[in-house]
Write a structure and sequence with these properties.
The protein is of the alpha/beta class and about 270 residues long. The protein has eight helices and twelve strands. The protein has one domain: P-loop containing nucleotide triphosphate hydrolases (Rossmann fold, 3-Layer(aba) Sandwich). Strand 11 and strand 12 form a beta hairpin. Helix 3 crosses helix 4, helix 3 runs parallel beside helix 5 and helix 5 packs parallel to helix 6. The N and C termini lie far apart (about 40 Å).
Length: about 270
């Protein structure tokens, strides 16, 4: 999906949000274009995961001010599935376990529904006509291709979704979903959380294989180590519900060396 180059792909403007009457986001501004990789860093409680959940449409958070635009369209009133169909994807920090539902069945339903909805929308824009549907055989072939890309055994597809999965397996399952859904905007919420070095390397390699000129990426992380494997174009540091500092990849290295204490003192953050 390529839109006008004059319009940013993803634009967050002066975003304020509360949960249970507590203000978490206090004026977040962030612009991401296709092909760009952005890293969002910050200490616990700074609002990073809140931002990720709001971008995906989590109903527990109330946006009190500001906007989120995708190709110029304000998406705040859209449901999570409507956002997914438009090409927005969130990889969760703590993926949900769903006993009794196999990976293959879950992925087939998600991919089929998303692709069919996109096909129907495209057909409507082109003046109607029959929208091509995804056949089961086509899905199985695509899933096997993406699993090989992520170095996943075929038996993985028959296991129940995230049940008994290691930390690395859960994160690879999230990246597999991303590979199959083919979003244009992906938000990875602390994908490195709970991963050992080997698992981090495999997951990062999968993300790098999916990155490219059609995809915008927002990597949310505490630590610079993820960015040793996935090189960001821009780094943003969040504290106390705001982005307080921005720069290139060198900013993450500087943060790793200095820590957050100096930033707390400099910006007077409450966290």
């Amino acid at each position: 999906m390529v839109e006008s180059s004059n319009v940013p792909m993803f634009e967050i403007e002066d975003l304020h949000a509360v949960i249970e009457d507590k203000e978490i986001l206090k004026g977040v501004n962030l612009t991401i274009n296709q092909g760009e990789i952005h890293a969002l860093m910050g200490p616990n409680g700074s609002g990073k995961s809140t931002l990720a959940n709001i971008l995906a449409g989590h109903p527990s958070y109330e946006v009190t001010e500001g906007s989120i635009r995708f190709w110029g369209e304000d998406i705040l009133e859209l449901s999570p599935d409507e956002r997914a169909r438009k090409g927005i994807f969130l990889a969760f920090q703590y993926p949900t376990v769903i006993p009794g539902v196999s990976m293959a069945n879950f992925l087939r339903m998600a991919v089929t529904n998303t692709r069919n909805a996109r096909a129907e929308e495209a057909a409507a824009k082109n003046g109607g006509g029959e929208a091509p549907k995804m056949a089961p055989r086509e899905f199985r072939k695509l899933m096997r291709e993406k699993m090989r890309l992520l170095k996943m055994d075929d038996s993985f597809a028959s296991r129940y979704l995230n049940e008994g999965f290691s930390g690395g397996e859960k994160k690879r399952a999230e990246i597999l979903q991303m590979a199959l859904l083919e979003p244009t905007m992906a938000i990875l919420d602390e994908t490195d959380s709970g991963l050992d070095i080997d698992a981090l390397r495999v997951v990062s390699e999968g993300v790098n294989n999916l990155a490219g000129p059609e995809l915008g990426l927002l990597l949310i992380t505490h630590y610079q180590r993820l960015l040793n494997y996935i090189k960001p174009d821009y780094v943003h540091i969040m504290m106390d519900g705001r982005i307080v500092q921005e720069g290139g990849p060198e900013l993450a290295v500087e943060l790793e060396q200095k820590g957050y204490e100096k930033l707390r003192a400099e910006y007077g953050a409450a966290v």
